[in-house]
Amino acid sequence: MLSAASFSHATHLSRSLELREKIVKVLAYSTKLAAHLHGSSRLAAASKQLSAARKVFSLLHWVRHVDDASDALGESGSLRALALLELAAALVVDLLGDASTLVSLRLLPLSPRLAERLEWCAAAVDAVHALVALGAGAVRASRIERLQAAAPQTAGAGAKAGADPKVGSTDAKLREKLQLARLAIVKYACDLLKASHAAGLRGLRGGGVPLPLALFAGLASGVISSHKVVVKLNGTRETHGTPASSAKKKTS
Fold it and tell me: Where, per UniProt, does this protein localize (predicted)?
C-alpha cells in the first residue's frame, strides 16, 4: 500500500506534468489564434502538432481528481452537491479525452464516424462541466465574501485584545482564496465558450460561438489554468517542508 508521503509525492509529480500540459495548451491556442488571424498554413500545422502533444500530456488526467474528491466531500450544503456534480462531469470529460487520444494514436480502433461522435460527446460534456463549475464557483466566491465581510469585526476585537497576528494572516488567505475563486469563474466561462463552439451548440437566437472568440477563450483558460497549477505546486512544496524560495534556488 502507498503511504501518505508517497501519495503526496505522486500528486506533486502529477501536478508537474499538468503544468507542462497547460503550457502546451497556451502555446497551442496562441498558434491557432495567430494562424486564424494571419492565414498562415505553417502556424496551422504547428498548432496541430502542439494539440497532439497536449493530448498525450493529458492522458490519465482523471487520476488527479483524487484530491478534488476529498475537497468536494468536505464541502457542505448546495456547494457539496455542485462540487460532486462538477467532479463527475470532469471525470467523464477526462475519460472521453483519453479515449479520443487513443483513437488519434491508433491504439483504439474506431471508425471515423464513431471517433467524430466521441469528440462531440467530449465537447458537449465539457460544456456541461463548465456550466456546473460556474455555479459552484459563484457559490464559493459568495461564501468567501461573507467570511471576508465578517473579518473586520474579528480584526477589531483582536486589536483591542492586543493585535493577534493570526487575524492578519487569515485575512490575507481569504483575499487570496477570493482572487482564485474569481479567476476560476472567468476560466470556466472561457471553457464554456470554447466547448460550446467545439460541440456546435447554439444560443437562443440560433447563433454559435465565433471561432476567434473560442480560440481567445481557450488561450485565456490556459493562462488561468497554468496559474492555478503553479499555486497548487507551491502549496505542495510547503507541505513537503520545502519553501518555494529555496526550491527556486535549487532549480536555478
Answer: Peroxisome membrane
Q: At what angle do helices 165-199 and 211-239 cross, to 10 degrees?
A: 150
Q: How many residues make up the chain in this entry?
A: 252
pTM beyond 0.70 = yes
Give the integer Cα–Cα distance in Å for 124 and 76: 28
CA within 13 Å, CB half, 62 = 14
Q: Which amino acid, 217? A: A
The amino acid sitting at 96 is L
pLDDT in tens, 226-247: 888 888 777 655 555 544 444 4
Joined together, the cell numbers standing for residue 238 give: 510547503
What DSSP line would sit under 22-91, residue for residue? HHHHHHHHHHHHHHHHHT-HHHHHHHHHHHHHHHHHTTTGGGGHHHHHHHHHT--HHHHHHHHHHHHHHH
Domain definitions of the chain by residue range: 64-209
Of 6, 18, 51, 17, the C-alpha closest to 32 is 51
Q: Alpha carbon 89 to chain centroid distance? A: 13
